Amino acid sequence: MSEMSHTPWRTVPTVMLTIMMAVVIAMPAIAEEEDYAERRIEMVEALVAAEIISDEAVIEAMKQVPRHRFVPGGQAGSAHLDRPLPIGSDQTISAPSIVGMMTEALSLEEADRVLEVGTGSGYHAAVLAEIVERVYTIEIIESLAVSAEERLAELGYENVTVKYGDGYEGWPEHAPFDAIIVTCAPDEIPEPLVEQLKEGGRMVIPVAEDGWAQTLYLVEKIDGELQKTDLADVMFVPLTREPR
Ligand code: SAH
Description:
Layout: H1 2-49, H2 56-64, E1 85-88, E2 91-93, H3 96-105, E3 113-117, H4 123-131, E4 134-139, H5 142-154, E5 160-164, E6 177-182, H6 191-195, E7 197-210, E8 213-222, E9 225-234
Parallel strand pairs: 3-4, 3-6, 4-5, 6-7
Antiparallel strand pairs: 1-2, 7-8, 8-9
This protein binds S-adenosyl-L-homocysteine (SAH).
Protein backbone atom coordinates (compact mmCIF):
# COMPACT_ATOMS: atom_id res chain seq x y z
CA MET A 1 0.00 0.00 0.00
CA SER A 2 2.74 2.41 1.03
CA GLU A 3 4.59 1.59 -2.18
CA MET A 4 1.49 2.30 -4.26
CA SER A 5 0.99 5.73 -2.68
CA HIS A 6 4.50 7.10 -3.15
CA THR A 7 5.29 5.75 -6.65
CA PRO A 8 3.03 8.25 -8.47
CA TRP A 9 4.66 11.16 -6.62
CA ARG A 10 8.06 10.10 -7.81
CA THR A 11 6.85 10.12 -11.39
CA VAL A 12 5.55 13.72 -11.17
CA PRO A 13 8.92 15.42 -11.78
CA THR A 14 9.54 13.02 -14.69
CA VAL A 15 6.15 13.83 -16.23
CA MET A 16 6.71 17.57 -15.78
CA LEU A 17 10.16 17.33 -17.26
CA THR A 18 8.78 15.42 -20.25
CA ILE A 19 6.08 18.09 -20.81
CA MET A 20 8.61 20.90 -20.49
CA MET A 21 10.96 19.21 -22.94
CA ALA A 22 8.11 18.71 -25.41
CA VAL A 23 7.22 22.41 -25.15
CA VAL A 24 10.84 23.47 -25.59
CA ILE A 25 11.19 21.21 -28.64
CA ALA A 26 7.86 22.30 -30.19
CA MET A 27 8.36 26.05 -29.66
CA PRO A 28 10.85 26.69 -32.46
CA ALA A 29 8.62 24.71 -34.83
CA ILE A 30 5.59 26.82 -33.85
CA ALA A 31 7.62 30.04 -34.20
CA GLU A 32 8.81 28.86 -37.62
CA GLU A 33 5.23 28.20 -38.80
CA GLU A 34 4.21 31.69 -37.59
CA ASP A 35 7.12 33.16 -39.49
CA TYR A 36 6.06 31.36 -42.70
CA ALA A 37 2.47 32.55 -42.19
CA GLU A 38 3.67 36.15 -41.83
CA ARG A 39 5.79 35.91 -44.98
CA ARG A 40 2.86 34.37 -46.83
CA ILE A 41 0.58 37.24 -45.89
CA GLU A 42 3.24 39.74 -47.04
CA MET A 43 3.54 37.81 -50.32
CA VAL A 44 -0.23 38.00 -50.91
CA GLU A 45 -0.42 41.67 -49.93
CA ALA A 46 2.30 42.45 -52.49
CA LEU A 47 0.21 40.71 -55.19
CA VAL A 48 -2.81 42.80 -54.18
CA ALA A 49 -0.75 46.02 -54.19
CA ALA A 50 0.57 45.15 -57.67
CA GLU A 51 -3.08 44.67 -58.78
CA ILE A 52 -2.39 41.07 -59.82
CA ILE A 53 -5.19 39.74 -57.60
CA SER A 54 -8.29 41.46 -56.21
CA ASP A 55 -10.86 38.65 -55.84
CA GLU A 56 -11.39 38.09 -52.09
CA ALA A 57 -11.64 34.31 -52.56
CA VAL A 58 -8.27 34.19 -54.34
CA ILE A 59 -6.64 36.45 -51.73
CA GLU A 60 -7.97 34.33 -48.87
CA ALA A 61 -6.97 31.06 -50.57
CA MET A 62 -3.39 32.19 -51.16
CA LYS A 63 -3.15 33.35 -47.55
CA GLN A 64 -4.30 29.92 -46.36
CA VAL A 65 -2.21 27.49 -48.43
CA PRO A 66 1.20 26.83 -46.78
CA ARG A 67 3.34 27.35 -49.90
CA HIS A 68 6.56 26.38 -48.03
CA ARG A 69 5.17 22.85 -47.65
CA PHE A 70 5.02 22.41 -51.44
CA VAL A 71 8.68 23.13 -52.21
CA PRO A 72 11.68 20.89 -51.41
CA GLY A 73 12.90 21.35 -47.82
CA GLY A 74 16.01 23.31 -48.75
CA GLN A 75 13.91 25.83 -50.74
CA ALA A 76 11.35 26.60 -48.02
CA GLY A 77 13.10 29.91 -47.24
CA SER A 78 12.53 31.05 -50.86
CA ALA A 79 8.92 29.84 -51.04
CA HIS A 80 7.48 33.36 -50.67
CA LEU A 81 9.64 35.12 -53.23
CA ASP A 82 7.84 35.89 -56.47
CA ARG A 83 9.67 33.36 -58.55
CA PRO A 84 9.27 29.78 -59.76
CA LEU A 85 11.22 27.10 -57.87
CA PRO A 86 12.45 23.64 -58.81
CA ILE A 87 10.35 20.74 -57.47
CA GLY A 88 12.39 17.84 -58.89
CA SER A 89 12.17 15.87 -62.18
CA ASP A 90 13.12 19.09 -64.05
CA GLN A 91 9.76 20.68 -63.18
CA THR A 92 8.90 23.88 -61.34
CA ILE A 93 6.24 25.33 -59.07
CA SER A 94 5.00 28.57 -60.69
CA ALA A 95 5.73 31.98 -59.18
CA PRO A 96 2.97 33.21 -56.82
CA SER A 97 2.06 36.04 -59.24
CA ILE A 98 1.40 33.51 -62.04
CA VAL A 99 -0.70 31.31 -59.74
CA GLY A 100 -2.64 34.39 -58.63
CA MET A 101 -3.18 35.76 -62.14
CA MET A 102 -4.31 32.41 -63.57
CA THR A 103 -6.65 31.67 -60.67
CA GLU A 104 -8.20 35.13 -60.79
CA ALA A 105 -8.77 34.83 -64.58
CA LEU A 106 -10.89 31.69 -64.02
CA SER A 107 -13.63 33.75 -62.23
CA LEU A 108 -14.31 30.82 -59.92
CA GLU A 109 -17.54 30.19 -58.02
CA GLU A 110 -17.79 28.05 -54.89
CA ALA A 111 -19.84 25.31 -56.59
CA ASP A 112 -17.40 24.91 -59.51
CA ARG A 113 -15.76 21.68 -60.59
CA VAL A 114 -12.24 22.39 -61.83
CA LEU A 115 -9.72 20.37 -63.84
CA GLU A 116 -6.00 21.11 -63.59
CA VAL A 117 -3.49 19.69 -66.09
CA GLY A 118 0.00 19.62 -64.51
CA THR A 119 -0.27 18.87 -60.76
CA GLY A 120 3.46 19.38 -60.11
CA SER A 121 3.81 20.01 -56.38
CA GLY A 122 0.04 20.23 -55.82
CA TYR A 123 0.28 23.89 -54.69
CA HIS A 124 -2.00 25.35 -57.34
CA ALA A 125 -4.48 22.49 -56.80
CA ALA A 126 -4.57 23.41 -53.09
CA VAL A 127 -5.24 27.08 -53.91
CA LEU A 128 -8.12 26.01 -56.19
CA ALA A 129 -9.41 23.61 -53.52
CA GLU A 130 -9.68 26.49 -51.02
CA ILE A 131 -12.05 28.25 -53.44
CA VAL A 132 -14.17 25.60 -55.16
CA GLU A 133 -16.00 22.44 -54.23
CA ARG A 134 -14.14 19.91 -56.38
CA VAL A 135 -10.70 19.79 -58.00
CA TYR A 136 -9.41 17.08 -60.35
CA THR A 137 -5.73 17.27 -61.25
CA ILE A 138 -3.57 15.21 -63.63
CA GLU A 139 0.22 14.80 -63.60
CA ILE A 140 2.28 12.94 -66.21
CA ILE A 141 5.32 12.23 -63.98
CA GLU A 142 4.38 9.44 -61.59
CA SER A 143 6.75 10.39 -58.74
CA LEU A 144 5.33 13.95 -58.71
CA ALA A 145 1.73 12.69 -58.85
CA VAL A 146 2.37 10.37 -55.88
CA SER A 147 4.11 12.98 -53.72
CA ALA A 148 1.51 15.66 -54.51
CA GLU A 149 -1.29 13.27 -53.61
CA GLU A 150 0.38 12.42 -50.27
CA ARG A 151 1.08 16.07 -49.48
CA LEU A 152 -2.48 17.19 -50.26
CA ALA A 153 -3.89 14.37 -48.09
CA GLU A 154 -1.53 15.26 -45.23
CA LEU A 155 -2.69 18.89 -45.38
CA GLY A 156 -6.34 17.78 -45.37
CA TYR A 157 -7.40 18.67 -48.91
CA GLU A 158 -10.15 16.07 -49.26
CA ASN A 159 -11.76 17.74 -52.29
CA VAL A 160 -8.77 17.19 -54.60
CA THR A 161 -8.30 14.02 -56.66
CA VAL A 162 -4.90 13.43 -58.25
CA LYS A 163 -4.41 11.18 -61.27
CA TYR A 164 -1.19 9.99 -62.90
CA GLY A 165 -1.57 10.21 -66.67
CA ASP A 166 -1.67 12.40 -69.77
CA GLY A 167 -3.77 15.49 -69.10
CA TYR A 168 -4.00 16.26 -72.83
CA GLU A 169 -6.92 13.83 -72.83
CA GLY A 170 -8.63 15.57 -69.92
CA TRP A 171 -10.69 13.45 -67.51
CA PRO A 172 -13.90 12.50 -69.35
CA GLU A 173 -15.37 10.59 -66.36
CA HIS A 174 -15.65 13.85 -64.40
CA ALA A 175 -16.47 16.21 -67.28
CA PRO A 176 -17.89 18.70 -68.00
CA PHE A 177 -15.83 21.21 -66.03
CA ASP A 178 -16.75 24.79 -65.10
CA ALA A 179 -13.08 25.71 -65.35
CA ILE A 180 -9.89 24.14 -66.70
CA ILE A 181 -6.39 25.29 -65.87
CA VAL A 182 -3.33 24.06 -67.73
CA THR A 183 0.07 24.68 -66.10
CA CYS A 184 2.28 23.28 -68.88
CA ALA A 185 2.38 24.57 -72.45
CA PRO A 186 1.00 22.61 -75.43
CA ASP A 187 1.51 23.76 -79.06
CA GLU A 188 -2.23 24.22 -79.44
CA ILE A 189 -5.32 24.06 -77.26
CA PRO A 190 -6.07 20.32 -76.77
CA GLU A 191 -9.41 19.42 -78.39
CA PRO A 192 -10.43 17.00 -75.58
CA LEU A 193 -10.15 19.88 -73.09
CA VAL A 194 -12.36 22.10 -75.25
CA GLU A 195 -14.95 19.30 -75.41
CA GLN A 196 -14.84 18.83 -71.63
CA LEU A 197 -15.37 22.52 -70.90
CA LYS A 198 -18.94 23.46 -69.93
CA GLU A 199 -20.91 25.99 -71.94
CA GLY A 200 -20.02 29.29 -70.21
CA GLY A 201 -16.87 27.64 -68.85
CA ARG A 202 -13.41 29.23 -68.64
CA MET A 203 -10.00 27.75 -69.45
CA VAL A 204 -6.62 29.36 -68.72
CA ILE A 205 -3.83 27.88 -70.78
CA PRO A 206 -0.33 28.80 -71.98
CA VAL A 207 0.14 28.00 -75.68
CA ALA A 208 3.55 27.68 -77.35
CA GLU A 209 2.44 28.90 -80.77
CA ASP A 210 5.81 30.01 -82.00
CA GLY A 211 8.65 27.85 -80.71
CA TRP A 212 9.80 29.20 -77.33
CA ALA A 213 7.38 32.10 -77.17
CA GLN A 214 4.26 31.29 -75.17
CA THR A 215 1.05 33.22 -74.70
CA LEU A 216 -1.25 32.74 -71.73
CA TYR A 217 -4.88 32.73 -72.89
CA LEU A 218 -8.24 32.93 -71.19
CA VAL A 219 -10.53 30.79 -73.35
CA GLU A 220 -14.29 31.10 -72.81
CA LYS A 221 -16.93 28.84 -74.33
CA ILE A 222 -19.82 31.06 -75.33
CA ASP A 223 -22.69 29.60 -77.41
CA GLY A 224 -20.37 26.76 -78.36
CA GLU A 225 -17.77 29.19 -79.74
CA LEU A 226 -14.35 29.82 -78.21
CA GLN A 227 -13.48 33.38 -77.27
CA LYS A 228 -9.75 33.88 -76.64
CA THR A 229 -8.24 36.70 -74.59
CA ASP A 230 -4.48 37.19 -74.52
CA LEU A 231 -3.44 37.58 -70.84
CA ALA A 232 0.39 37.64 -70.89
CA ASP A 233 3.64 36.39 -72.38
CA VAL A 234 4.76 33.50 -70.21
CA MET A 235 7.29 30.72 -69.78
CA PHE A 236 5.96 27.31 -68.73
CA VAL A 237 7.43 23.82 -69.02
CA PRO A 238 6.14 22.07 -72.15
CA LEU A 239 3.14 19.77 -72.10
CA THR A 240 4.55 16.32 -72.88
CA ARG A 241 2.59 13.26 -73.98
CA GLU A 242 4.64 10.33 -72.61
CA PRO A 243 3.85 9.26 -69.03
CA ARG A 244 7.07 8.91 -66.99
N1 SAH B 1 0.75 23.50 -61.01
C1 SAH B 1 2.02 23.05 -60.52
C2 SAH B 1 3.18 23.48 -61.38
C3 SAH B 1 3.25 22.58 -62.53
S1 SAH B 1 4.65 22.59 -63.56
C4 SAH B 1 2.26 23.45 -59.08
O1 SAH B 1 1.44 24.18 -58.50
O2 SAH B 1 3.27 23.01 -58.53
C5 SAH B 1 3.90 21.72 -64.90
C6 SAH B 1 3.63 20.26 -64.66
O3 SAH B 1 2.96 19.76 -65.81
C7 SAH B 1 4.89 19.42 -64.50
O4 SAH B 1 4.86 18.76 -63.28
C8 SAH B 1 4.82 18.44 -65.68
O5 SAH B 1 5.30 17.15 -65.38
C9 SAH B 1 3.32 18.40 -65.97
N2 SAH B 1 2.92 17.94 -67.30
C10 SAH B 1 3.56 18.10 -68.49
N3 SAH B 1 2.84 17.52 -69.48
C11 SAH B 1 1.72 16.98 -68.90
C12 SAH B 1 0.60 16.24 -69.40
N4 SAH B 1 0.45 15.92 -70.69
N5 SAH B 1 -0.35 15.87 -68.51
C13 SAH B 1 -0.23 16.15 -67.18
N6 SAH B 1 0.81 16.84 -66.67
C14 SAH B 1 1.78 17.25 -67.50
